[in-house]
Structures are given as structure tokens and as C-alpha cells.
Amino acid sequence: MNYRIDKEGLYDRLSGWNGFMKKRVRLIACGGTALTLLDIKPSTKDIDLIVPDLAEYKYLIRTLEQLGYKPASGSGWARDDGFIFDLFPGKRVHFTELVESPLDKGNNTLIREFSHIYLGILNCYDLIITKLFRASSIDMEDCLLLIKNKKGDINIDKLVKRFKDTAYYDISETKVNKNLEHFLKLIKKEGLKW
Questions:
Q1: How far apart are CA 128 and CA 160, in angstroms?
Q2: 86 secondary structure, DSSP code
Q3: In principle, which of 19, 98, 135, 158 could form an S-S bond with 179, CB 3.0–4.6 Å?
């Protein structure tokens, strides 16, 4: 089955987790989850969350195990309801290591706070960077959607510099820089002005 979750469904799920927690956990939405929370996409099929603090990550995993979640993929956790929560510890999203912590000032925006769960959204620059490092056709489409919807908030020169700073530390620096070049051509082709 092709399960999808919308913004309210995600809030409901996190509210349920929150009811079992006794400690604070900060979650930073990334990927399609962030676009759903920003109302750019109506839903997402997988839930991508960064848990920057490693102690909070370990606590969250213990809590999820008590709630019946089991490892479902490299970073994924799921129960029998079809939803996979990809939980990325530290400042890594899939294989992309961010230059700065998502908890540093300006690197996330609060979207919802529960009694124990802080839910933020990764900044637009790092959202684009993490998607462009993978560069699937859906990732490219998502980046274009983000640019179109948040264009006034994104400085192309800052994006390029931050991308190159991130790529510098990646084993596939040349490859991911080509992804950026391709994306910049797509932006131009779409007629997006900066």
C-alpha cells in the first residue's frame, strides 16, 4: 500500500508520542515532511526527522521501542500502520552531513511545540542542500517547489556558498556540485528570478 500522511496526521502522531515522554526531545523536520509542514505539499509518504541531540535521540528510540516501533530500514522506524519514520541523529540527513547543527540559531523554525516535543523545520538552504545531494527527480521537483514558494526568503548566492561548503566535506564533492549546476539550470529554465 502507498501510505501518505498530512500535516494534521503528523501532529496527531507526535502528540501521541508526547503523551509517553517524560523528557524533552527536539525534532527538526526535513525532506518532504518539511514541505508538508510548510503547506507546500499536501502529504508525504515517509516522515523525515533530524534528532540533533544524541542523548535525545537515544531517549526517543527507547520510547518508540516501548510503543512497538521496530527498525524498518537504515534510519527508519515503523509499526504495523505502514508509516516509516526516518530518524537522523546529529546533523546528518541520509548521507549528507550538514555544516552546522540544525539546533544552531537560524537553522530551524519552530512549527509546533508539545509539552515534551519541540518540532522545528530545517532552514530552506539546508532543505535544498540535503535534497540536491540525493538529486532524484522528486528531490529536484521538491527543491523547485520550495524555491517558488519561498523565493523571497532564499538568496541564491548564499545557497550556492552553503552548498559548496557542505559539499567540500563530502566524499562525492564533484558529483554533488554537478547536481547543484543542474539545479541552477532548472531554476533558470523555469524563469525564476532572484
A1: 10
A2: E
A3: 135
Contact status, residue 52 vs residue 91, Cβ threshold 8 Å: yes
Query: Domain residues of the chain, as ranges?
Result: 7-122, 126-189
Cβ partners under 8 Å of residue 25, min gap 6: 51, 56, 59, 60, 116, 117, 118
Instruction: Assess contact for 45 and 32: CB atoms under 8 A.
Output: yes
Query: Strands, DSSP E only, in the chain?
Result: 25-29, 47-51, 70-71, 76-78, 84-89, 92-93, 96-97, 108-113, 117-122
* Inter-residue contact 120 to 26 (CB < 8 Å): yes
Block mean pLDDT (10 aa), the chain, length 194 = 82 96 98 96 92 98 96 91 92 94 97 98 97 92 93 89 93 92 91 67
Q: What is the pTM of this model?
A: 0.94
Topology of domain 7-122, per CATH? Answer: Beta Polymerase; domain 2 (3.30.460)
Amino acid at 164: K
Is the CB of residue 24 less than 8 Å from the CB of residue 51? no
Cell numbers placing 189: 529554465
How far apart are the C-alpha atoms of 113 and 183, rounded to whole Å? 34
CA angle at residue 148 from 4 to 178, to 5 degrees? 90
CA–CA gap between residue 146 and residue 125 (Å, rounded):
10
Which residues does 133 contact at the CB level (< 8 Å), separation at least 6? 94, 95, 96, 166, 167, 170, 176, 179
